[in-house]
């Protein structure tokens, strides 16, 4: 599970405008990083352009999921993650980032803003903090603990069933052994009855 990009955009009348972005392209080769970063920026702007104001969506592109939130005030956020990353955590992250951004950056600066002119530094911290969704989101952490407990309980039940089967085998073997020992006793008694010890 990995987050690759976190972007804040403004959806204007002429199109989406990138206000601020943070990227984690360390998993790509050095020579691909700039191209991947440009592609993520282009994809973020494109899906904001094609989305309605006041909408949320998750768009699948190859092995990646682009999570999008366009608020009623035309402020938009996009998270690009791999397909395993939980969508609920992405939307929680977008809500936090957009709320914080709207409080720190005046809405008058949004239509004319650019990544160089906007003074907001929280995206890198959010991107690194949310790399592990279990640590960033309490619900994911509880879900992971429940899944782990379920696996342990399942393994315990399997071992109990295995023990039960082994006990059943021992009981049936002891019954067979008991029957064989009775037959041996009767046969030995018959053979010993013809001979007398003086």
Structure description:
This protein has 198 residues and is an alpha+beta fold. The protein is 52% helix and 20% strand. The chain is built from 5 helices and 5 strands; from the N terminus they run ββαβββαααα. It has helices at 33-49, 87-104, 122-129, 133-136, 138-193, and strands spanning 3-11, 16-23, 55-61, 64-70, 75-82. Strands 2-1-5-4-3 form a 5-stranded antiparallel β-sheet, sandwiched between helices. The longest helix has 56 residues, at 138-193. It is rod-shaped. The N and C termini lie far apart (89 Å). The relative contact order is 0.13. The mean pLDDT is 80.
Short description:
The chain has helices spanning 33-49, 87-104, 122-129, 133-136, 138-193, and strands at 3-11, 16-23, 55-61, 64-70, 75-82.
Structural class: alpha+beta
Classify the beta-strand content into a percent band.
Answer: 15-25%
User: What is the number of E strands?
Assistant: 5
- Counting copies of identical and different chains, the oligomeric state is single chain
Question: Which helices and strands appear, and what pairs or packs with what?
Answer:
Blueprint: E1 3-11, E2 16-23, H1 33-49, E3 55-61, E4 64-70, E5 75-82, H2 87-104, H3 122-129, H4 133-136, H5 138-193
Antiparallel strand pairs: 1-2, 1-5, 3-4, 4-5
């Amino acid at each position: 599970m990995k987050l690759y990009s976190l972007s804040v955009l403004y959806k204007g009348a002429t199109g989406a405008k990138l206000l601020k972005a943070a990227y984690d392209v360390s998993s790509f080769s050095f020579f691909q990083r700039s191209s991947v970063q440009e592609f993520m920026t282009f994809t973020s702007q494109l899906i904001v352009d094609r989305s309605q104001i006041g909408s949320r969506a998750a768009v699948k592109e190859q092995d990646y999921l682009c999570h999008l939130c366009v608020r009623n005030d035309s402020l938009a956020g996009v998270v690009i993650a791999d397909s395993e990353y939980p969508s609920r955590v992405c939307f929680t992250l977008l809500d936090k980032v957009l709320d914080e951004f709207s409080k720190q950056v005046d809405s008058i600066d949004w239509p004319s803003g650019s990544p160089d002119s906007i003074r907001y530094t929280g995206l890198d911290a959010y991107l690194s903090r949310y790399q592990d969704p279990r640590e960033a989101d309490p619900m994911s952490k509880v879900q992971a603990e429940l899944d782990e407990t379920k696996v342990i309980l399942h393994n315990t039940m399997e071992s109990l069933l295995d023990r039960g089967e082994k006990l059943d085998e021992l009981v049936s073997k002891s019954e067979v052994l008991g029957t064989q020992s009775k037959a041996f006793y009767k046969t030995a008694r018959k053979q010993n009855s013809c001979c007398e010890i003086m």
